[in-house]
Every structure is written in structure tokens, then in C-alpha cells.
Amino acid sequence: MVFSFISDTKRAVGLLKQYQSSLTSPEEQALKTSVEKVSSIFGSHLFQALLGEVCFGVNSNGSQNK
């Protein structure tokens, strides 16, 4: 389950970077900067660790471990 979220996140980062590279006009620079920030956050080790914590904090039947 965790590996699925991590691979989905990596795929999302790749798609965001691809989209970011398509933003070339001056009017799109603010959006390009925002997309860069989001992809940077999603690709960070901290985000990956937090995602892992969320996944490991829920057991197989969906209830939270205590």
C-alpha cells in the first residue's frame, strides 16, 4: 500500500514537471512557480516520510492503530 502511494506520488511529480516545462509564456510564470513548489514538496523526503507514516498508521481494515 505504501509503495503504491509512493509510486503514485513519483508519477504525479513527473507529470507536474512535464506540465511545468510546457508553461513558457510570461503570463504563466506565476503558475509555473506554483507548480514547481508543489512538485518540490511532493518529491521531498519529508513528504515521502509523512506519507509513509500515514500509511503505516492505518491497519488493513482501515481503522487507526493506537
Helix content: over 70%
- Proportion in β-strands: under 5%
Largest sheet: none
Number of helices: 3
- Computed Rg: 15 Å
Q: Tell me how many strands there are.
A: 0
- What is the general shape? elongated
Query: What structural class do the secondary elements suggest?
Result: mainly alpha
Protein name: Si:dkey-31j3.11
Organism: Sinocyclocheilus anshuiensis
InterPro entries: L27_1, L27_dom_sf
Domain L27-1: 7-51
Summarize the structure in words.
The chain has 66 residues and is mostly helical. It has a domain at 32-57. It has helices at 2-22, 29-43, 45-56. 0% of the residues are buried. The mean pLDDT is 84. This is Si:dkey-31j3.11. It holds the Pfam family L27_1. Residues 7-51 form the L27-1 domain.
